[in-house]
Amino acid sequence: MNIMKKTLKKNLQKNLKVKLVLSLLFLSGCNPKSSETFFESILDLKKYEFYNDDLVLLKNTSIEDGILILSSIIQNESIEKRILFYFIDLDDKKLLKILESPIDEYVGLRYSLDNGMFYLLKNTSSETIYVNNIRDKNAKFEKKQLFEGIDKYTPFEFNVVDRTTYYTKDLKGGCVFNFKNYIFHEKSIFSTENADYNSLSLPLKKRNVFSYLKNDSLNIFCFYNKKEWQKKIPLKKTSNGTFFNSKIYNLNSLFVVKYNNNLVGLDKINGKEKWKKTFNANILNIYFYNDRLVIICNNHNSTKVIQVSDNGQVIKEVFLKEKIDHKNQIFFLEDKIIVHVSKSKNSSYILNLTTNNFENIKINNNQDLKQIFDKRSGKYYIKFGENIYNKAI
Asked: How far, in whole angstroms, is CA 87 from its chain's centroid?
């Protein structure tokens, strides 16, 4: 066993990989001498000077296209309040740039990173966008004024994809517009009856769809270079007169629309229905894995994990150890589902989606776990303490 541990340690050092070992996560109920479980860390934030600065109050952590974006507020009695953004490339761990926001109020800030260009706005002043190239150390923010009338929108979500801009999650509706050299030349504006249904397909790709609720129907609009197609899906209200949340998943081969407890596969080119699948259970969440969907479903007494291919076929399914409720948290990393059970039980576990095997684990509850989804690449990460993880081994 000692030889095995020395070999493991040598291999870890050789690959320059930081591991979270038994001090944070270990197999529950097993002899520590015979088994170890690791999360694989790809970034230790403590190595960056700004992260250890007591004046830096981190507000949000996100990842777009493999770039970690940290937003913060700096303020004390002698320093005027400043809002800073830090950009770290997760591949080479390089701090690309530190930007000070030209907007002096943090509440309402929305941003998007597209092909190295950082777009920033305040959602109550949506007619103005600030743009900066994060790979050019000398580039300053440029202020761009958009077209008249767009200032009526206060988007909760804001995304730019190849110069096509989406304002979504707004009670007034949403807006899709395209520009070249920041000159607007094409737009589509929608009204909606519920901001939750005014959303964009994920992950973001060159071809995306935009949805909104109107006349008790989910309206889906494909906007790629020019208006291509629209589709309308009637929705049924629940017993309390509301609708189930809907989401649209952007796979390589098709769009998959989730509404009520149904999944519908739509052709990307023309929007025609390719398949439909109904589940006799409440869909809690859906993840991406190898261009398939991993669906977490709750029925009366249990929770099931179902893997569905892009042609609508069930590949694998397995029941979790207990029904998922508000006391449990689910996290996703590569091909693993981590179920973090209530802190009092210390009975968390990992489900391997390849083998359908379970491993009991114990998680250090002194630090919070946060799931981070890269809406560009479709990859999942976990922030645990000062580390960013992308794999459970």
From this structure: 17
